[in-house]
Specification:
Distance between the termini: 30 Å
Number of strands: 10
Helix content: under 10%
Structural class: mainly beta
Strand order of the largest sheet: 1-3-2-8-9-10-5-4
Number of helices: 2
Radius of gyration: 24 Å
Order of helices and strands: EEEEEHEEEEEH
């Protein structure tokens, strides 16, 4: 764990949109001018092709929150969508279904295992703090909702799969989105494009909300066999983490030492 609390403005790229603009009396402020340090660097990050990740500096966040859209032809390629982790809720539901049977002369039912299912849902908010965040943030959101639509190849429909990451609880879990809802509330402000012209940053604004609530339903398709086993990593990370973070792996040295110590107790 870090020895001190990270600076969310500097270390996490949150920016300081309420900071002083150093205007003098009579000055006019050009909101279209780029003003480094005031915006949220993570919001302003564009969609990143997976082939360019090694050459891209991705702004940090307190909790990892991203979506990898997988290329249906080459699973090693695709695009990365990163959002600021303004999470409202997460629901992770596990379901076991059983077949039931009745036998003559017995009042109770008998059961055999039938199937397993898992469903994820989560809600988060987007919040543009500066003009420069609006375009990349809404481009990412537009591509996110597109994940409920099919991809076409040779005139035929096919699905695109994604890998979802929320902290280490949901660690690059593959699957697909079954529903995405965008919700606007009356207290959320809008970009109104009052200038009606291209700004000094070369962009013309669209009339879009500065803030939206996003709710997603995600159907996992695990890259491991879901089994009733101590080593099955349902909510523990197993991809892209340090070996000592693979807590579900009971062959790791740290877990092995813990278990050997527990053998000394009558439990």
């Amino acid at each position: 764990m870090p020895t001190q609390r990270p600076d969310v403005t500097q270390d996490m790229g949150r920016g300081n949109p309420g900071g002083p603009k150093n205007l003098k009396p009579g000055d006019t402020y050009d909101f279209s001018a780029k003003n480094p340090g005031y915006g949220d660097a993570r919001n302003a990050q564009k969609i990143i092709p997976l082939s360019e990740i090694s050459n891209t500096t991705i702004p940090r966040d307190l909790i990892k929150f991203n979506i990898k859209v997988i290329d249906p032809v080459d699973p090693n390629n695709g695009d990365l969508l990163i959002f600021r982790a303004y999470l409202d809720d997460i629901s992770d539901d596990y379901t076991a279904n059983y077949n039931n049977f009745k036998y003559n002369g017995r009042a109770e039912k008998f059961y055999t295992y039938s199937e397993f299912d898992r469903k994820l849902s989560f809600s988060f908010r987007i919040q543009a703090q500066s003009r420069q965040e609006m375009k990349p943030l809404h481009q990412k959101l537009n591509y996110l909702v597109a994940q409920t639509a099919p991809n076409y190849s040779n005139g035929r429909m096919r699905a695109k799969f994604s890998r979802l990451t929320i902290g280490d609880w949901i660690n690059e879990i593959p699957g697909f989105f079954t529903n995405i809802s965008l919700n606007w509330k009356g207290e959320y402000s809008w970009e109104i494009d009052s200038e009606e012209r291209i700004g000094s940053d070369g962009e013309r604004m669209n009339q879009l909300p500065h803030q939206l609530d996003v709710k997603c339903n995600f159907q996992p398709i695990h890259d491991f066999a879901p089994s009733n086993d101590i080593n099955t990593p349902f909510i523990l990370p197993h991809r892209g983490v340090d070996p000592n973070q693979k807590w579900a792996d009971n062959s790791s040295p740290s877990v092995g030492n813990l278990l050997s110590g527990l053998n000394n107790f009558n439990i």
